[in-house]
Amino acid sequence: MTFARSVLIAFVGLATATSVALAQPQVASVTRLPPALFFEGTSERLGITRVAIETTILGNLAETRMTLTFGNTTPRARAGDLYVPLPPDATVSGYALDVAGRMVDGVVVPKDEARRIFEKEVRKGVDPGLVEWTRGNVFKTRVFPIPANGSRTVRLSWVAPLEGGDAGATYALPLAFDQKLAELSLRIEIVRGKERPKVTGAGSLALTFDERLVAEVKLANQAVVQDLKIVIPDVSRRPVQVERSVDGRHYFTVRDWVPPATDLRRITPKRLRVLWDASLSRESSDRGRELELLRKYLGTLAAGAEVELVVVRNEAQAPRKFAIPAETEALVAWLTALPNDGGTQLARLSPGPGAAAVDLILVFSDGLSTFGDDSPKPLGAPAWFVSSSAAAGHDTLRRLAADNGGVYLDLGRVGDDAALAQIGRPVWSLLSAVVEDGKVEALLPAGAEPAPTASLVAGVLTSERAVVRLSWGVPGQAASVVKRFEITRPTAGNKTEVLRFAWAHKRLADLMSQPTKNADLIVDLGKAQGIVTPGTSLLVLETLAQYLEHRVRPPATWPEMRADWDREIENQHVAAQRTEAQRLDEVQAMWKGEIAWYERRFDYPENFRFRSESDKKSAESRRAPSSPASEDRGSDGIIEGLKSEPAPPPAPSPAKLDAKPEAGKDNAPEPGVSLTPWDPTTPWTTALKAAAPDERVRVYLAQRATHGTAPSFYLDCADFFLKVKDEPMALQVLSNIAELKLDDPPLLRVLAHRLAQLGQLATAATIFEEVLRLRPEEPQSHRDLALVLGLRAAKQKSTVAAKADWQGALDHLAAVVKRRWDRFEAIEIIALHELNRIWTLAQPAGATLPLDARFVYPMELDARIVMTWDADATDMDLHVIEPSNEEADYSHNLTTIGGKVSRDFTQGYGPEIYGLRRAMHGTYKVKTKFYGSSAANLIGAVTLQVDVFTNWGRPNEKRQSMTLRLTDSKEEFVVGEIEF
What angle do CA 905, 911, 913 make, to 5 degrees? Predict the structure, then answer.
């Protein structure tokens, strides 16, 4: 049996937390075992035939490469789950599998790109293996196939700090194999060490170090039943380490510890601010334990102290004041009854204008910012952050605490009494790392960092030598201790990449303090440094064709394939340039056709009424019998024989293209738009309508307990609160959608569209940026973001910010125009309409046109109706009944008066658009219809967004929008009417 042609390596979380229980109960104790591979779904372990371990120790860091060969003695191919326990704070730096006798390294690619490649390979019928690194320090991978009576080899590499101790730093390696190994080889090297290390455990290895501080041993047919520990006594006397990496840069670390000053006094606040995160994601927290910690801490305060309580969700609520100790129980009772609801906007932790000064701040939060700005400004006082949630954003909370002179108390790791003892105690910290002499890049940490134990500083030396000054003390006070360390380039190159990975790990921890804002930087770091991050995965492919198809460069350890790939990619690049030019020529031809429609004059009698031909078949009968979401409705979007139209005039000449289009009608009355209120009949809307005003929130929460997993619940309830003019509650309810399923692009699209309707443009733009990151392969992702950036640009007070938004809008729409989209043919024309509209507004701000002048032709329309929806592989139809009684839709897309319906998208999302340059007097009725879906995972209703524009492209342009849902195939809804 051949090797499965692709393997997706996906890691969940970072190895910075304690071990978690594994999914399979029968292997729950694997974290106390050496590496083991279990037959899939069983507790039966495969035999390990060969183990090869290479470890390089540099200062307080070790890089380990473990190669394991497993034998399958059964007569059929098997699949297995490999578990490898890793040290705390380990950074996985490599993964490789044997392919046709060769070890092939995984390539770091963005996680979402790896997902798309993985899914595509699955659709080809390939059975990929999936590797996961569970939260904690357990690496997990599925290995398939393990051939009948054959073997598979896996190599895993990681970098981790040594464990500290009074006698020195300790390197620990789990070697307690309870089976005989056919072959074991072990090599350990101490780089630039001065003293021989002490070896304990694994007694049968008889491991000894020579004068080079290298130990090697090979065993055959022996069992190793003890873990190996190596104590390096002189690490503290070698605080500075430098290495020259394969990338040509010189990475260094400085590791040192200064004991805290003995005269530090605990803060005893008279005014305390408690920031309480009451968002929906906090449902999983241990509220009782957090409140008990708060009660105990309040009990330590002197009489007369005052607590200012601020509840934070998507917004911060007005402060509440409590006197201590008299109102301690009232405060605890109030928080006990407080519901968790809404998204989290961490920026709202910052004090608002006019906030009173306080002595100390306690923040209870999971640190998961799901809604809007995730970057709070300084909190204004020393702040201790507390969380009891295992799924908290630990890196975020740790960084926020350090930035505000406090400590993050993870109650999953710290006992209540220990946490209580730390609150208010001055935080002994590494205050700063500063370059005094020489040149250093990317010096970390960039800010203060608590230093209960040794601090690690890392950077890149770009001069021959440099001096780095480290300062320790209490944040907000003068430094108590200052030390200087000289960094010098080594005279010879190193054999390790230990320090590079250590720097990358520290950089990752820094970026993870704001994971959403830094998403692109996290991906760039993983790709540049070859490490696994929450934004990257490792991908192993087998053939050059696969690497080329997915535009993934083969690993450096396969140089001949990489050279072939580079050569072929260069050829493809040259061809792509020709293809793009041809593509733009094709788009220009379509655009000329659009201009021909715009310039055509549609003549009709004054009291024209449309009469269909007697033999005209209904639109429904013309549907192909195949799946509705995959049918082809013709290349030009008009069904032959339905209506005979005169041939359009020839496309205008280039001189005509440069002419300014006709301006809007002067002194014309404003058209009237009336949208039908969306009023679904659901249990929750019925209950809310029946509730008294002061009971609405309670009724909403009661209904949420039953229906709170459905996005439609929050959309409907938000609409209800808007109708009763409670906009703050409406936004709070709506923001819950961000916490339901953070990586669901359709759901995020619905939320962002709704926020844009409500004028929350900054938050909408942030969410559309996330959608684009998740779904860059869909043109709607670019278009949605472009349009909201255009809306925001028009409201920006800063000319610099406005220019940036205008340019972003133009660039994203140009991206839609330049690329061919298989499922969304002619969406380029829609984007060109919108790009021209934005270009007319963006020019005064100094924006640059990202397309050539062939595509500049702004068009003004009396009416433009746009419909989009959230479900893939789903067919929704837009219908407009004109005053003549002529109905424009996908099957009759050009009417007598010039109404035009865009190309019908049967595969999902839209947009479908009706445009009319010169409106006939009368009433236009707008309808939508849910035609059908072939989406296997479509659950529940399809959410539609409808925008109705009048005087589109003119200074008096107006827009009205609505969101609605259709549930059943063939269901129709009358959106509203336009009166001209």
Answer: 100
Distance from the Cα of residue 25 to its chain's centroid: 31
Q: Answer yes or no: is pLDDT of 32 > 70.
A: no
| Helix (H), strand (E) counts: the chain | 20, 43
Tell me how far apart the alpha carbons of residues 908 and 873 are, in angstroms, rounded to a whole number.
5
pLDDT per position as a tens digit, 584-621: 889 999 999 999 999 999 999 988 999 865 444 554 45
Q: Alpha-carbon distance 888 to 978, whole Å?
A: 15
Q: 695 CB contacts (<8 Å, ≥6 apart)?
A: none
Cα separation of 721 and 717, whole Å?
Answer: 6
DSSP run (H or E) holding 383? strand 383-387
Reduced DSSP (H G I as helix, E B as strand, rest coil) percent helix, strand, coil of the chain, to 5 = 30, 30, 40
Among the listed residues 189, 222, 166, the one whose alpha carbon sits nearest the alpha carbon of residue 63 = 189
Contact 341/731 with Cβ under 8 angstroms? no
Q: Which two tokens stand for residue 434?
A: 């500063």
Tell me the per-residue pLDDT of 617-669, one tens digit each, with 9 for 90 and over. Answer: 554 454 443 333 333 333 333 323 233 333 333 334 343 333 344 444 545 56
Residue 618: exposed, middle, or buried by beta-carbon count in 10 A (0-12, 13-18, 19+)?
Answer: exposed
Q: What is d(CA 944, CA 394) in angstroms, rounded to the nearest whole number? A: 37
Round to whole Å and give the CA distance between 738 and 371. Answer: 6
Collapsed DSSP state (helix, strand, coil) of residue 750:
helix
Beta bridge partners of 289: none
Half-sphere exposure of 581 (CA within 13 A, CB side): 5
CA-based nearest residue to 241, from 91, 58, 64: 58
What is the Cα–Cα distance from 233 to 463, expressed in whole angstroms? 31
Report the distance separating Cα 179 and Cα 877, nearest Å: 66
- Please give the Cα distance from 518 to 523 (Å, whole number): 9
Q: How many CB atoms lie within 10 A of CB 746?
A: 22
- Picking from 345, 278, 717, the residue whose alpha carbon sits closest to that of residue 514 is 345
Q: Give yes or no for a contact between 530 and 388, defined as CB atoms under 8 angstroms apart.
A: no
pTM listed for this prediction? 0.77
**Matching residue, tokens 């200064």:** 258
List beta partners, residue 221: none
Q: Tell me the C-alpha distance between 306 and 360, whole Å.
A: 11
Which pLDDT belongs to residue 19? Answer: 29
Dihedral sign (CA 370, 371, 372, 377) = negative
Q: Which two tokens stand for residue 523?
A: 């991906």
